[in-house]
Amino acid sequence: METIRLTTGQAIVKWLLAQRTVVDGEEVGVFAGVFGIFGHGNVTCLAEALQPVQEQLPTWRGHNEQSMALAAVAYGKAVRGRRIMIATSSIGPGSTNMVTAAAAAHANRIPVLLFSGDTFQHRIVDPVLQQVENFSDPTITAADAFKPVTRYWDRISRPEQIVQSLPQALAVMLDPATRGPVFLALPQDIQAEAYDYPAKFFAPKVHFIRRPGPDPRDIAEAAELLANAAKPMIIAGGGVHYSGAVAELTAFAEKRGIPVVETVAGKAALIHDHPNYAGPIGVTGSTAANSVAEDADVVLAVGTRLQDFTTGSWSVFKNPDTKFVAINTASWDAHKQMSVPVIGDAKVAIETLDAAIGDYKAPPEWLGFAQSRIAEWHEYLDSWKGREHDGPPAYAEVIQVINEICDDDDYCLSAAGGLPGELVMGWRSKSVGSFDSEYGYSTMGYEICGGWGAKMAKPDGDVIAWVGDGSYLMMNSDIYSTVMTGHKVIFMVCDNGGFAVINRLQVNTGGEEFNNLLRTARHERYFHVDFVKHAEAMGAIVEKVEKLEDLAAAYARAKEADRSYVIVVDIDQYTWTEGGAWWEVGVPEVSEREQVRVARAELEAEKKHQRVGI
Question: Going by C-beta distance under 8 Å and a sequence separation of 6 or more, which residues neighbour residue 551?
Fold first, then answer.
């Protein structure tokens, strides 16, 4: 047998280069690049192997391990899991910084490969710098923190183990049913150790993402439910995008006359003016979609994990006899709420279901109802334009200005705080697949680094990354990264003086304003951060827009700029878009505040509408 003698680090890189796939008819590497911060856990070995192959597998230097791993997540979302980014760190704090990003990838079902250095397997020199010692189990290191938030975890304790582990790890990341983050711990001594690897291990291999078909028995049961539905509704989740099933879902809805609502991850499956589009559903949804959900008797949930923001904590489906059909590659998601499970690829499942229900069409007045409600919703969104008031604009006003003038293929990106709700409700998608809001894990700090990763995936169009002042202060260094690497992003920095959306939740549940807005937090000096100076110091072009009527011109300048552009806008702390759904949070059962007692009574009243697994 022909062998090649390589260190573990060298063999890993050589194997990564050999993994190929086909995207839009072109053969490319499965692994598109590496985000790396090098330290004493990876600089001497893994970095030594990466340096010579920069033309085939470029390494991008981030400035925070969490942010660069989140950039890898954003890349994976933008390419719909068809290619994979890698992030690598040293041992200790560099490693644990990536845990949050792993959790975000896990919650969102996004493939990302994480390599972390680890302590020596021989243990002779324990404890080493940055080692966290476990007093009862010496095999545990900081790397074990990734176990709850990854789909596949391994510690490479012998060089030959990668022959088994790497193919298994890639299989997990490319399988729609198990897709998510993979973590491999690479002890320092093992990275450096050599082994005679089989040459065939490095033979180029072309991979593809499988499309598993559903069981005919599940299709038959689902078809019977749908064929007898008077008020059917489709929920388009993120799986519609990842399957590439937008055309099939759209054709199915058109043919059957069924309203389509969207989740956060499923947004931009239908454009905003499609006749079957009924708006975003749930807590960050519209009165239109939530009204349709109230009366629906059969819900076809496609590629969604049905989290509480989608379902209004399971309160939006008011019809006690509503039945669910769940199309999903993951059995875990397909069986939720005693749904009729259709386990398989969304594209294949929709085509199969379409063939099984014959000439069924929903009553035309049902789609007419949905169309009338979405028309009312659009009127509501239009009402934000030219709104007369004192003080700074609301989120909705800024969003409507940018939404109206942006190009159809501009890619809109956001994450935690008030912006996801405002954008999911207020951003009217002009093209399919043009929206990303990291709300699966609601990760503050995703916005700026996510814009960087998304731009790598979408070099030909503009990426608009919306970020609040709270997220900006939490993680902002990748503005510099976008400038340094030439990945231009337009950053909309919306400053409402703190964590205003959490302040809203605090007040709406009876609490007193406390510790969320900057002025209500403990302080000796209260002042506004000068985001213009800060962003300029990282190399971006920056301007602050004081008047809403000047925003369109500022955005036009941003479009023409040759590097990342930051637009800073002050935002009203108390004015919000309202979509009409309830969200369950813990409200104290006992309190001296009357407002809290009232909020508790409202909670108990709303809980009566919750669907409890039936």
Answer: 398, 401, 402, 545, 567, 569
Residue 365: φ, ψ to 5°: -70, -20
Q: Are 410 and 464 in contact (CB under 8 A)?
A: yes
The structural architecture, per CATH, of the domain 216-377 is 3-Layer(aba) Sandwich (3.40)
| 613: confidence class by pLDDT, cuts 50, 70, 90 | low
Q: Do domains 3-207 and 216-377 have the same CATH topology?
A: yes
Instruction: Find the helix or strand (DSSP H, E) in which 468 lies.
Output: strand 463-468
Are β-strands 565-570 and 490-495 bridged in parallel, bridged antiparallel, or unpaired? parallel
Take residue 604 and report the two structure tokens written for it: 């108990």
The pLDDT of residue 2 is: 97
Instruction: Domain ranges for the chain, please list them.
Output: 3-207, 216-377, 387-570
pLDDT tens for 54-70 read 999 999 999 999 999 99
The burial of 78, by beta-carbon neighbours within 10 Å (0-12 exposed, 13-18 middle, 19 or more buried), is given as buried
Helix (H, G, I), strand (E, B) or coil at 177: coil
Report the candidate in 101, 174, 178, 149 with the shortest Cα–Cα distance to residue 333: 178
Which positions ≥6 away from 487 have C-beta within 8 Å? 452, 455, 456, 459, 481, 564
pLDDT, averaged across the chain? 97
Which residue from 250, 257, 247, 178 is spatially nearest to 210, judged by alpha carbons?
Answer: 178
Q: Cα dihedral sign for 540, 541, 546, 552?
A: negative
Nearest one of 238, 258, 241 to 307, comparing CA atoms: 238
Nearest to 258 by CA among 204, 315, 299, 288: 299
Q: Using DSSP, state whether 180 is helix, strand or coil.
A: coil
341: burial class by Cβ within 10 Å (0-12, 13-18, 19+)?
buried
Q: pLDDT tens digits for 362-390?
A: 999 999 999 999 999 999 999 999 888 89
| Cβ burial 475-509 (10 Å sphere, 16+ → b, else e) | bbebbbbbbbbebbbbbbbbbbbbbbbbbbebbeb
**Which CATH number does 387-570 carry?**
3.40.50.970
Q: Which CATH number fits domain 3-207: 3.40.720.10, 3.20.20.150, 3.40.50.970, 3.10.20.340?
A: 3.40.50.970
Q: Enumerate residues 6+ apart whose C-beta is below 8 A from 375.
A: none
Among residues 213, 234, 479, which one has the least CA distance to residue 343?
Answer: 213
